[in-house]
Amino acid sequence: MEQVLPHFAEGEVVKGFGRGSKELGIPTANFPDNVVDNLPECIGCGVYYGWAKVDQGSVFKMVMSVGWNPYYQNKKKTMETHIIHAFVDDFYGSHLKVVMLGYIRNMKNFSSLEELIKAIESDISIAKDKLDEPENIMFRDHNFFES
């Protein structure tokens, strides 16, 4: 699958479906519809890895789900970012910047919540490894993340 990456996106963090933290134990930051709607068509649905920054904080590794999340039968396309960092509080209304650098896998349905969680944990592990590669580390300090 040919993608046009890196892709830079930014916007306000909005409330999602509330499943990430509560049901999955894997909190996500959701972009508003206008950011999702402006995603280039060449960036297909799937799971991606890259870097993320909230407000004036540090830049952290992230994984992002782009699509309709078949397990939950979403009716609208979303961009849900899991930042690989333990935040103390929610940050709804904050400004999120991300750079999507690589593709991990297609969206797919899962037979159970446990299977979905296992897949996400695998995605996170892949992202951590990929983002340690020199060609990806350099994006952590990209001027996009400066104020």
Automatic annotation (TrEMBL):
Its cofactor is Zn(2+). SMART domains: Flavokinase. InterPro entries: Riboflavin_kinase, Riboflavin_kinase_bac/euk, Riboflavin_kinase_dom_sf. GO terms for biological process: FMN biosynthetic process; riboflavin biosynthetic process. GO terms for cellular component: mitochondrion. One of its GO terms (molecular function) is metal ion binding. It catalyses: riboflavin + ATP = FMN + ADP + H(+). SUPFAM superfamilies: Riboflavin kinase-like. Its EC number is 2.7.1.26. Keywords: ATP-binding, Flavoprotein, FMN, Kinase, Metal-binding, Nucleotide-binding, Transferase, Zinc. Pathway: Cofactor biosynthesis; FMN biosynthesis; FMN from riboflavin (ATP route): step 1/1. Residues 4-132 form the Riboflavin kinase domain. Catalyzes the phosphorylation of riboflavin (vitamin B2) to form flavin-mononucleotide (FMN), hence rate-limiting enzyme in the synthesis of FAD. Essential for TNF-induced reactive oxygen species (ROS) production. Through its interaction with both TNFRSF1A and CYBA, physically and functionally couples TNFRSF1A to NADPH oxidase. TNF-activation of RFK may enhance the incorporation of FAD in NADPH oxidase, a critical step for the assembly and activation of NADPH oxidase. This is Riboflavin kinase.
